Amino acid sequence: MLKQTILAVIAVFIAWSILDFLIHGVLLKSTYQETANLWRPEDEMNMPLMSIVTLVFSICFVIIYSYLIEPKSLSLGIKYGLILGIATGVSMGFGSYCYMPIPLSLAFSWFIGSLVEITLAGIIVGYMVKSLEEQKA
Prior knowledge:
This protein has 137 residues and is an all-alpha fold. It has one domain (2-38, 45-136). The protein contains 6 helices and no strands. 25% of the residues are buried.
């Protein structure tokens, strides 16, 4: 199961990196430009640290599924992704809206973005990580 876990971490990290670029670098670019006073200038952003944060979250997400969720299935992977996606999306989107002067549309976009990203990660782990019994069959 270790090999499946490592491969799932890589797959989730790549999926999240691509979606982060699409969501934040393309779809929300104009919103970030309109609220530029809230963000660091691009040359001061720490993208290597952001990649490390994404990798650590990917590792934790996959390890929780791999070692704590039984039985393993695509259906449970999707449910895991949806539940954690809702929790993370509410926290990131609307939690941030509570104390940052961001537009409500950005909070909603962060919520939806998190929900989509983490649900996709649930699909990935549900598909890639199998229990020991399933591996033997």
